[in-house]
Amino acid sequence: MSRPVDAAIAAIREFLGERLTTNAGLREHHSHGQDTQPPVSPDAVAFIETSEEAGRVLAICNTHGVPVVPFGTGSSLEGHVTPVRGGISLDLSRMTQVLEVNAADMDCRVQAGVTHRTLNAHLRDQGLFFPVDPGADASIGGMCATRASGTNAVRYGTIRENVLGLTVALADGRVIRTGGRVRKSATGYDLTHLFVGSEGTLGVITEIQLRLHGIPEAASAAICQFETLGDAVETVIAVMQAGIPVARIELLDDVQMGACIAYSKLEDALPLPTLFFEFHGTEASVAEQATSAEEIAGSFGARGFRWATGQEERNKLWRARHDAYWACLALKPGHKGIATDAIVPISRLAEAILGAQDDIAASGLTAPIVGHVGDGNFHTVILVPPEPDGIARAWELDKKIVARALALGGSCSGEHGVGIGKREFLEVEHGAETLAVMRSVKTTLDPRGILNPGKIFLN
Ligand SMILES: Cc1cc2nc3c(=O)[nH]c(=O)nc-3n(C[C@H](O)[C@H](O)[C@H](O)COP(=O)(O)OP(=O)(O)OC[C@H]3O[C@@H](n4cnc5c(N)ncnc54)[C@H](O)[C@@H]3O)c2cc1C
Questions:
Q1: Measured from the CB, is residue 143 less than 6 Å from ligand 1?
Q2: Nearest atom in ligand 1 to 92's CA
Q3: Per the UniProt record, which EC number(s) apply here (predicted)?
Q4: Do residues 273 and 353 make contact, with C-beta atoms less than 8 angstroms apart?
Q5: Ligand 1, residues 69, 73, 75: which to mutate, most atoms within 8 A of Cβ?
Q6: Which atom of ligand 1 is nearest to the CA of 77?
Q7: Interatomic CA distance for residues 105 and 81, integer angstroms
Q8: pLDDT of 299 over the 70 cut
């Protein structure tokens, strides 16, 4: 007797042809993201190119009760894309059209598979840029689905603040448009932001209307180094509390800095706790912001600012920051990495980071600290020893760091999302009643539970 998934595959193949594949290599590629969760292959991978195709695949899978797991570039870090119950991996990476750019209104509409770096390459000649910059070259659809951010969020907001509207294919195959092009609207429920952060569990995002920003007249970057991690963190808190509108402020502890020096060949830097800054604005405002930040850093014993004013030097600095994850993995070849993603109110940042530093020391594991600290968000990349108890020790450390962040009024994830890895913390963070309301939203939009099952909720 044929399985429901076989019937679904046959029906999808009728209109996708060879874009529906059961090739073993492609199924393996879609069995995991950049995480340590056990991989599970989908039964098939469907490469769609339009919203209408997304709707047709979903309608068929809904009829047959077959799971559908959207797949952007597979860079997520919590097991998000693993099809734990098999079914169809719905790959949007061929949806790469920038559909329109409205320079006068500073917005654009893209298909979900466009990546943030491709979009910025497309926009550069028009004096515009899209600021949300996760370290991986993720798809805009995946970034919406995980509610991503990056180094620029402290000044320009996360993807949530930069999405104006969406096209979404629902579980039953209907395709809807949410939001619009205007900067604000007071009409109806905010469905756009319901889908942002829904991790492929409520619908498949196929097109996105985005806010854009003007490339600033002037930009400058700097690094400064400290004897202690505490001094670096106190500098961040003081800079943010002083209201200096930094574009980026990133912290790297001594271990992470050592890893970046080795991996990215950073010259003139020492393996010490380090802050990376970037300032945007007019020539005058950039100079003013930089002077204020330098004064504050000096009062916490910074070893002097080193400026990177040329575009090439700035790019090298930020490339090194974006490659921090790979630099960590290169520290111990053969180890996998679990990235924690805790976030706390800025006033509690020192407690959270210094507490994490103590936890890491007590664990005996290597876990560099790096973070978008201007938002109160920091990561530790816990290197998992390839020993039988390695993964258990790593998760134990992860739990301690999360528990402290929650106790300080924070969240278990500032930007990576829940996926599989953070499900157990949701009830503590949001409360049982709130979680029950989230579940009822899920049931309303996806009554048969076909969309990315096994994610966000524990069961
Ligand atoms: C080196 C490195 C650095 C990173 N740095 C950052 C960082 O600074 N900030 C940050 O936020 N994240 C970061 N990440 C995590 C990752 O890049 C983000 O989570 C990103 O948003 C995932 O996008 P993606 O296209 O790879 O999505 P995928 O991994 O393919 O999918 C992620 C989730 O979204 C769903 N999904 C994907 N596309 C759609 C769609 N069109 N419609 C509905 N659901 C969809 C999937 O089902 C899955 O649940 C980093 C990852 C790596 C490997």
A1: yes
A2: 41
A3: 1.1.2.4
A4: no
A5: 75
A6: 15
A7: 35
A8: yes
Asked if residue 294 belongs to a domain, the reply is yes
75 Cα: distance to centroid of ligand 1 (angstroms): 5
| DSSP of 230-249 | HHHHHHHHHHHHTT---SEE
Residue 382 binned pLDDT confidence (cut-offs 50, 70, 90): very high
Tell whether 84 is covered by a domain: yes
Does any ligand 1 atom lie closer than 6 A to the CB of residue 73? yes
* Residue identifier of the C-alpha nearest atom 28 of ligand 1: 74
Take residue 119 and report the two structure tokens written for it: 């979009």
Q: Are residues 65 and 136 in the same domain?
A: no
Smallest CA separation from ligand 1 atom 18, residue: 76
The secondary structure of 356-411 as a DSSP string is HHHHHHHHT----EEE-GGGTB-EEEEEE-SSTTHHHHHHHHHHHHHHHHHHTT-B
Helix or strand or coil: residue 49?
coil
- Asked whether 72 lines ligand 1 (CB < 6 A), one says yes
**Residue 165 CB: number of other CB atoms within 10 A?**
20
Kind and range of the H or E run holding 5: helix 4-16
- 145-183 per-position pLDDT tens digit: 999 999 999 999 999 999 999 999 999 999 999 999 999
Q: Which of 214, 233, 263 is the last residue of a domain?
A: 214
* DSSP symbol at 228: S
Same domain, 21 and 109: no
Distance of alpha carbon 80 from alpha carbon 70, whole angstroms: 9
164: its two tokens: 């104006």
